[in-house]
TrEMBL record:
One of its GO terms (cellular component) is mitochondrion. It holds the Pfam family Cpn10. The keyword DNA-binding does not apply. One of its GO terms (molecular function) is metal ion binding. This is 20 kDa chaperonin, chloroplastic. The keyword Signal applies. It comes from Attheya septentrionalis. SUPFAM superfamilies: GroES-like (SSF50129).
């Protein structure tokens, strides 16, 4: 039987393959456009550019260049931790609250749905500010800065600007921003309750102030929200994520944790 390829051709191909594997990864792989989409990191991935010139470091080790989050991961530069209480008392490092707010340094393109194969876009982009869960993500030190690698599912809300206001914040996807009423400090019998007794109580009802885009389904479209701005709702105990915006107390609640709407009192 005649050989499919000459022996000299196979030897040449093998030699070329070995030489290719010995090259640096950056020069060995050249992105090839497929269906009009470049596979280079500049088109599908968002890289975290270093703030200053010099070597790029990750957890104290020098790396070849900026890191690029994959999938639905988001790299966040954490904001400064609280250094004092509301009364002005300075806190030691071990007593300071963990920061859960920061600026997006880089974001992956999104997550591929395991059943439909549809790309679920990442809701945040580089430059946005985000609020995320207290224990979400993995902490790292990137270029001597404290950063957090979180998923887009961990983002509670996002905004642009220096600080959060009701005008610039947006609940992320299926989150709803609920205004929490002030706790009554007087019982029906007339007994006054100290505020220190009720400070840890988590209210589970309030008025809807802002509504996210909705819950993303497997087809890549948003399902409608079960409530609207102005509705009064009740949600599961401990399901809310407390947040203070412009010195007022709010709670971020997922739409699936809303139990019911409460009829408003007739003012007539």
């Amino acid at each position: 039987m005649a050989e499919l390829y000459p022996r000299g051709f196979l030897a040449l191909a093998l030699t070329a393959g070995i030489a290719l594997m010995m090259l640096e990864p950056s020069s060995a792989f050249v992105p090839v456009p497929i269906f009009g989409v470049s596979l280079s990191s500049s088109s599908l991935l968002s890289t975290a550019e270093p703030l200053a010139s010099g070597p790029t470091t990750l957890d104290g080790e020098t790396i070849r260049g900026p890191i690029a989050p994959l999938g639905n991961f988001v790299l966040v530069r954490t904001k400064d931790m609280l250094s004092s209480t509301e009364g002005g008392i300075l806190l030691p490092d071990q007593a300071q609250e963990r920061p859960t707010e920061g600026e997006v340094m880089a974001a992956g393109p999104g997550n591929i749905h395991p059943d439909t194969g549809i790309l679920i876009d990442n809701p945040v982009i580089k430059g946005m500010n985000v609020l995320y869960g207290k224990y979400d993500g993995v902490g790292m030190v990137y270029n001597d800065e404290d950063v957090q690698m979180i998923r887009d599912d961990d983002v509670l809300l996002y905004y642009t600007g220096i600080r959060m206001t009701l005008e610039n914040v947006t609940p992320c996807r299926d989150y709803v921003l609920v205004e929490i009423p002030k706790t009554k400090l007087e019982m029906s019998s007339g007994v006054v309750i100290a505020s220190s007794v009720t400070k840890d109580d988590l209210p589970c009802e309030g008025a809807v102030i802002l509504v996210g885009e909705g819950r993303m389904c497997s087809k890549g479209v948003f399902t409608p929200a079960p409530c609207a701005v102005g509705d009064r709702v009740k949600f599961r105990d401990y399901a809310g994520n407390p947040v203070k915006i412009q010195n007022k107390e709010y709670s971020l609640v997922r739409m699936i944790d809303l139990l019911c709407s409460i009829p408003q009192e007739n003012k007539d």
